[in-house]
Write a structure and sequence with these properties.
Length: 298
């Protein structure tokens, strides 16, 4: 019995040493080219499968020595995958990095590393579904640049109108080359909608702060008219279902309510007036006070 324990301890020490050497070899590639980091991560993952299987048999899953080796392996394999994705222009980067990230998640021992794996797996999955077909790479680049340029423009609906005008022909090319229900097309169309919607919301919020003057009212009425025209276009654009049912519909309905109130409650002089029901409520209060005083005096 003691001999078996001693043998297990000797084997365990040797495995730990070998695992440590493999780990240091992978770490030595940090800062190297992206392909080297991917290769290092792939080698380490293959070695980890062998080492951890033997250590698991010898120690058990709850042994601190096993858990430490598995955690260190998970951290480095994940980092290799991240460095590869961040450092390469390879169209297949997400597909090649995913197995490394998933394996790192499988052997991770702490909640922190598990969550870090989950976050990066989510990002890479998004990259996979949004990766343009090779024939659309140029169009994809132009559309993404259009959206980047939009972030540098003032938050005014007139600029959102310009952005949409530039983006729609590019989206048409993507739809023609894919399909109306293609996830990549839906994702890119949603990005355009979200950019325009965000500018509308920001512009309206800013204009609402200055409705106490005729000039301010004139500006927000102009903003509303342009926004309504934009919404007629946005409403028929393709979007991811969860986005359309969530953020888009919520903001669309909220803005429609604001638009209706402002457009229907301004008089010829440009000042906001109370709705007629508020006038009736005011007269009802006056009459009630009058009656109270009358009966009190009696």
């Amino acid at each position: 019995m003691d001999d078996n324990n001693n043998m297990t301890g000797t084997q365990t020490a040797a495995l730990q040493q070998q695992a440590g050497q493999a780990l240091e070899k992978a770490r030595a590639t940090r800062g190297h080219f992206a392909d080297e980091r991917w290769g290092a991560g792939k080698r380490l993952a293959n070695e980890a499968k062998a080492f951890l299987a033997q250590m698991l048999t010898a120690m058990g899953a709850d042994d601190p020595r096993y858990r430490q080796v598995a955690e260190n392996m998970a951290e480095e394999i994940l980092q290799c995958a991240i460095d590869y994705v961040n450092g390469t222009d390879d169209d297949s980067a997400a597909q090649k990095a995913m197995p490394l990230m998933e394996y790192a998640r499988e052997i991770a021992q702490t909640r922190f590393t598990e969550e870090r794996c989950d976050d990066n797996i989510s990002v890479v999955r998004q990259m996979q579904v949004e990766r343009p077909p090779l024939a659309l790479k140029e169009t994809d680049g132009l559309l993404r640049q259009c959206l980047i340029d939009a972030t540098a423009l003032p938050d005014e609906v007139s600029y959102a109108e310009q952005t949409l005008g530039k983006a729609l022909p590019l989206l048409d090319k993507i739809r023609e080359a894919t399909a109306a229900d293609d996830h990549y097309y839906l994702a890119m169309s949603t990005k355009v909608v979200d950019s325009v919607l965000g500018t509308i919301v920001d512009d309206v919020n800013e204009r609402l702060l200055h409705t106490d003057t005729q000039e301010g009212l004139a500006r927000i009425k102009h903003t509303i008219m342009v926004s309504m025209n934009l919404f007629r276009k946005l409403d028929v654009m393709a979007m991811l279902p969860e986005y359309k049912a969530g953020r888009y519909s919520e903001n669309r309905n909220r803005l429609a309510s604001v638009f209706n109130q402002i457009m229907n409650n301004t008089d010829q002089g440009g000042k906001i007036r109370f709705r007629w029901e508020y006038h009736l409520l005011g007269w009802a209060i006056v009459i009630a006070i009058f009656l109270i005083f009358k009966f009190a005096c009696q």
